[in-house]
Amino acid sequence: MNEDKLVAILALQAAPGVGDRTAKKLIAYCGSPQAVFTASKRDLTRVDGIGSFVAQALSNDTLFKQAESELSFIRKNNIQCHYFEDASYPFALKHCVDGPILMFSSGNIAINDQPILSIVGTRRATPRGVSFCEELIAQLAPFNPIIVSGFAYGIDIVAHRAALANNLQTVGCLAHGIQKCYPASHRKYRSNIENNGGFYSDFWSNAPFAKSNFLKCNRIIAGLSSATLVIESDQKGGSLITANMAFDYNRVVMAVPGRPSDTMSKGCNDLIKAQKAHVLTSAEDVMLQLNWHQKPTQTPVQKKLFVELTDQERIVLQVLQETGKEQLDFIAIKSNYPISQTASLLFALEMKGVVKPLPGKWYKMI
Fold first, then answer.
1. Which of 65-69, 233-237, 277-281 has the lowest mean pLDDT?
2. Per-residue pLDDT at 258
3. For position 340, what pLDDT does the model report?
4. C-alpha separations of 189 from 117, 142, 185, 199 in Å
5. pTM for this structure?
6. 301-365, what's its fold?
7. Cis peptide before 33, with omega less than 30 degrees from 0?
8. Geometric angle at alpha carbon 198, from 151 and 138, rounded to 5°
């Protein structure tokens, strides 16, 4: 990414009243981050949700001064940047409407076709919760999942440590600048995590520690993965917020049930009762929900070339040919078919051996 574009993206991040959703609308309307700042106020106010306050804020020259200062810090500290339209930006997060327009990372994160699991829970983990988390990750290790969590006390750091112990890549999502470390006592884990994974954040280097930061961080934890697993949780807390975000993103959510009298099981039990989470009692439950117990169907490419398809099936297949992998809702939108009809067409394509269903209502070509 060239520096002019990166400075414009940073300036957009710094603009008052411009969140990630609004920024994406502006970029889509104007054509590029740079074009947002050359557009007239009149043109900007034509964008849905953009009023005179935001249009005026975008004309403030101090935005670029702030952006250039942050860019200098990024270059000096070798921080990696990931724009939401770039290939290096996590694929699953691209489908979250409130996903960051720009993320920062450190370490050696390599998200390819590996499954990604977010594991969250209380900061006051019980011995039972710690043991369950460690055993779960060890049992799932043969599938080589990337383990995502929030690098906090309790279940988060247990998940990171267990991933490292099983030689799995692990990613910590931070609620502050990428160069900072909170809690400070976890600094001893940073180098090991960065050697086999790393950290993501969408906060600038000068971002203050604030409760709202953790809420924003939760959307990245939920959006990165195909499934969010809640090990332990009280009736309130960040892990429940993450689970609800994952549910809203149409991802698989699972929770470990417990006795009604167990404080750290109340949140998990509530998720299950509300039918927002599947029951999680063992690694087999995860394997079942994510189809990991099934061996991939080997279909020779030569046979696919001669499969007879209807005109409607070809339209749906063309969407997958363009993206490689897509969610049901987006396939329906791009195909201009109702979701129910799209689901039927995808099932027909699956039966013909050209499409494979994935967890979370995702589909890909075989």
1. 233-237
2. 93
3. 79
4. 20, 23, 9, 12
5. 0.79
6. Arc Repressor Mutant, subunit A (1.10.10)
7. no
8. 70
Confidence band (pLDDT; 50, 70, 90) for 167?
very high
E strand segments, 152-207: 170-173, 197-201
Give the tokens for residue 197: 């994974």
Tell me the C-alpha to C-alpha distance, in Å, between residue 21 and each of 12, 47, 65, 349.
12, 12, 23, 34
Tell me the C-alpha to C-alpha distance, in Å, between residue 33 and each of 15, 103, 116. Answer: 12, 15, 30
Amino acid identity of 158?
V
Give the tokens for residue 133. 């988390």
Q: What secondary structure letter does DSSP report for 112?
A: S
pLDDT at site 360: 67
Q: Which residues pair with 255 in a beta bridge?
A: 230, 279
Task: Residue count of the chain, please give it.
Answer: 366
The CATH architecture of the domain made up of 107-289 is 3-Layer(aba) Sandwich (3.40)
CATH number of 1-76: 1.10.150.20
The closest of 123, 144, 149 to 225, measured between CA atoms, is: 149
- Mean pLDDT of the chain, nearest integer: 90
Nearest-angstrom CA–CA distance, 115 and 113: 6
Beta strand 146-149 with 170-173 is parallel
Domain ranges, ordered by start, for the chain: 1-76, 107-289, 301-365
SS3 206: coil
pLDDT digits (tens, 9 = 90+) for 220-248: 999 999 999 999 999 988 999 999 999 99
Mean pLDDT calculated for residue range 323-348: 84
State residue 141 phi and psi, 5-degree precision.
Answer: -55, -35
- The neighbouring-strand residues paired with 365 are 355
Query: What is the average pLDDT across 132-141?
Result: 95
Residue that the structure tokens 């403030």 belong to = 60
Q: b vs e for 292-301, b when ≥16 Cβ sit within 10 Å of the residue's Cβ?
A: beeeeeeeee
